[in-house]
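R.M. (postdoc): so does anyone remember the format we settled on? I'll just put the structure tokens first.
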């Protein structure tokens, strides 16, 4: 019974190997070959651009037909497979294939490749499971054979007793199922029935031969499967290499620079044009480490869509960044700017740059300052720097030297300020500077003073001459950005501080403070009142006499302007004259003085002269020669009675022009006098270039004639006047001793409070009488020496 049962089990196992092993295996291997061919077809599609496109109609039809054949093979395998696990696996495989068949919408090459890759993996898994079942059934057949061998051996021992009948019966009953099992095994192995060799006489040898045949078939199929997988991998690798070569050729064929950056900010690829443009940048480096290419790095890291770069060779590129879905990075393409765009950018750059120094101009500076005040993250200090007496350089060395001086000042300021500061030229000889966080350099005041001291210590060579440049600096320090500050208001405060610094003779540096602004506001209010006073006629003339000590009488008068404000009262000329000089109001005021004084002098006795002071502004603005000519004509004043006084400061702006004007005035017949002679450095030089008619000894020498130096100067001036045939007058005479000393040195004309202060026009007749009587009654005589009394 055991042998019969074992024979039956062996036969059933052979049938199961045919039905549930070999047949499904063949069908799945056929499906695997179809899938591999299909995958190869779609793997050969070119480039990422084509993969993203939908399938063409013919490609879709071919895909559906191939998938239908594969579905039929999988379903055949499912019917023959009783194993629940394997059946469930094949069911999932069938669902994956049907999902690809029934995909709606645009089916792209990328989708087909992805789905086919998953289906192929599932088929390979199913084939591996069936092979495992075949091996298990083969092992079970071998065990059954060993059991039969043992049963036969046992039966042989005991069968001798039973006899030949049982042997014949057993041989008949055993040989049929054994031969049936051997035949089934051969069918499992795929052996053809036609031309097959007859079975061996020994049924056990026949069964063993069949089992070996099945083992050989299984080994051959495994070897074939390994070869197929190896061939598929090699094919895919070759396909990838071809695609990479095609991509490299395509990238290098582009005439535009291009590079790829991954999600981590690393340069993953670049074409030949990019390598030519940036030869020092290597594939594999982090963009954030690109020193010297910060603008390019920033554009790539933030993904700019329209960044313009200057690589340094004079070319301009617009960088456009596009998202790269493969590695979540980006693709950057560099476009040459068109000539029109290049021109526009150059115009924009020039519009924000000072053409002389190359520094940012005023508009650029205001824009930068406004951004720093409203959007900055750290406090800033704002400086306005003025080149003191810059006009002197233009006058003495020429305009070209002045331009060169400004260029060198701009370069020096940029060097001293450092790379974190913004330096600009904001006016003719003014520079602006925005300095963030300078506490580590001693704070705003020390920072500014260091700049002033550096220029004072190190001269600048211009036109072959070393020039010591004096700077005046106004600063508004430590401004905290809060969005409420305005660049123009800050610059206004800077200018206020600068004006204060320029007026200081000892310290040309001023830190803005609210009280400075208050003082500035007061000056502005006074300027407004002065303008209104000119319109309302609030100014009047007073006259101070010139005294001829030889003839002991008044020789003439000097016209001096006074301001009687309805709100301020009598304002000293020392207060309002400097303001009118600075603002230019001195020009209309000077014209008023000229006309009114000449009008009044025309009614004086014929022997009296009129002296009028001219401001340097009157030589710069308008036509002073025409004004004098017209005034003389209108008032009928004899030109010989008019003296025009000028100071040495007049010659500092344009000496040649001034001398031409003075020559024209002298031709009108008027007298030209140099006021405050001896206080400047070029008095003798101008005396030699222009023949003045009179020189005035400044009151600073007259006040202290007891000093040997002052007396020496007075004697020198008097001697110079005598040798050059110039009249000399001494001003500021306040004591009889001064008068006597000057008269003793040969000075015959004087002016001062000893004789009379400035008086209103209505009192001039009285002044004439007072001076004459003063000489008559001895008021201008020295007091007699006291007489010693005898005991």
């Amino acid at each position: 019974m055991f042998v019969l049962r074992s024979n039956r089990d062996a036969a059933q196992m052979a049938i199961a190997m045919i039905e549930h092993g070999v047949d499904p295996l063949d069908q799945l291997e056929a499906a695997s070959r179809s899938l591999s061919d299909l995958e190869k077809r779609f793997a050969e599609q070119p480039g990422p651009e084509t993969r993203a496109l939908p399938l063409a109609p013919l490609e879709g039809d071919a895909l559906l037909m191939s998938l239908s054949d594969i579905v039929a093979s999988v379903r055949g395998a499912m019917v023959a497979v009783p194993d629940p696990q394997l059946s469930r696996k094949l069911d999932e495989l069938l669902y994956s294939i049907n999902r690809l068949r029934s995909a709606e919408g645009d089916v792209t090459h990328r989708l087909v490749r992805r789905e086919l890759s998953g289906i192929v993996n599932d088929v390979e898994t199913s084939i591996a499971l069936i092979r495992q079942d075949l091996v298990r059934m083969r092992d079970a057949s071998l065990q059954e054979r060993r059991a039969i061998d043992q049963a036969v051996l046992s039966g042989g021992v005991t069968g001798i007793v039973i006899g030949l009948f049982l042997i014949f019966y057993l041989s008949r009953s055993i040989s049929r199922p054994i031969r049936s099992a051997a035949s089934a095994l051969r069918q499992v192995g795929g052996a053809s029935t036609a031309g097959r060799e007859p079975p061996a006489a020994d049924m056990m040898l026949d069964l063993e031969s069949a089992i070996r045949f099945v083992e050989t078939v299984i080994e051959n199929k495994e070897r074939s499967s390994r070869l197929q997988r190896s061939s598929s991998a090699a094919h895919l690798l070759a396909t990838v290499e071809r695609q990479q070569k095609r991509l490299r050729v395509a990238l290098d064929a582009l005439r535009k620079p291009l590079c790829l950056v991954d999600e981590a900010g690393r340069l993953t690829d670049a074409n030949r044009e990019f390598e030519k443009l940036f030869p020092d940048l290597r594939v594999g480096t982090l963009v954030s480490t690109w020193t010297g290419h910060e603008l390019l790095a920033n554009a790539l890291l933030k993904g700019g869509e329209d960044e313009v770069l200057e690589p340094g060779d004079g070319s301009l590129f617009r960088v456009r960044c596009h998202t790269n879905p493969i590695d979540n990075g980006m693709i950057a393409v560099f476009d040459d700017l068109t000539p029109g765009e290049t021109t526009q950018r150059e115009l924009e750059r020039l519009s924000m740059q000072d053409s002389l120094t190359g520094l940012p101009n005023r508009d650029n500076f205001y824009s930068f300052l406004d951004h720093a005040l409203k959007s900055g993250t750290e406090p800033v200090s704002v400086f306005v720097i003025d080149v003191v007496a810059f006009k002197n350089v233009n006058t003495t060395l020429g305009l070209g030297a002045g331009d060169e001086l400004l260029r060198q000042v701009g370069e020096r300021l940029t060097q001293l300020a450092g790379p974190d500061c913004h330096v600009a030229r904001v006016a003719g000889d003014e520079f602006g500077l925005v300095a963030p966080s300078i506490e580590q350099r001693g704070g705003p005041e020390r920072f500014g003073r260091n700049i002033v001291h550096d220029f004072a210590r190190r001269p600048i060579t211009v036109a072959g001459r070393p020039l010591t440049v004096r700077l005046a600096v106004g600063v508004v320090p430590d401004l905290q950005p809060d969005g409420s500050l305005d660049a123009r208001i800050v610059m206004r405060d800077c200018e206020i501080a600068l004006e204060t610094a320029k007026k200081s003779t000892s310290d040309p540096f001023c830190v803005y403070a609210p009280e400075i602004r208050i003082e500035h506001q007061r000056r502005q209010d006074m300027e407004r009142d002065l303008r209104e006073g000119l319109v309302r006629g609030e100014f009047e003339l007073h006259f101070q006499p010139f005294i001829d000590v030889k003839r002991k009488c008044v020789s003439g008068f000097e016209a001096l302007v006074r301001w009687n404000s309805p709100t301020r009262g009598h304002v000293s000329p020392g207060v309002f004259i400097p303001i009118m000089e600075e603002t230019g109001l001195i020009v209309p005021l000077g014209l008023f003085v000229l006309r009114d004084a000449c009008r009044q002098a025309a009614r004086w006795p014929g022997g009296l002269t009129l002296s009028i002071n001219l401001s340097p502004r009157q030589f710069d603005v308008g036509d002073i020669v025409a004004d004098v000519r017209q005034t003389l004509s209108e008032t009928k004043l004899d030109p010989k009675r008019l003296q025009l006084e000028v100071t040495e400061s007049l010659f500092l702006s344009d000496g040649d022009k001034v001398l031409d004007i003075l020559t024209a005035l002298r031709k009108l017949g008027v007298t030209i006098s140099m006021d405050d002679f001896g206080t400047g450095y070029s008095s003798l030089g101008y005396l030699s270039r222009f023949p003045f008619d009179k020189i005035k000894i400044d009151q600073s020498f007259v006040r202290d004639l007891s000093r040997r130096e002052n007396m020496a100067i007075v004697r020198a001036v008097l001697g110079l006047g005598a040798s050059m045939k110039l009249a000399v007058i001494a001003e500021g005479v306040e004591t009889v001793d001064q008068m006597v000393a000057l008269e003793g040195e040969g000075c015959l004309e004087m002016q001062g409070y000893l004789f009379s202060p400035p008086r209103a026009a209505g009192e001039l007749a009285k002044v004439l009488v007072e001076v004459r009587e003063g000489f008559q009654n001895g008021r201008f005589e020295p007091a007699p020496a006291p007489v010693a009394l005898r005991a």
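R.M.: ...and that's the designed sequence above, right after the tokens. Also worth knowing: Residues 109-162 form the longest helix (54 residues). The mean pLDDT is 79.
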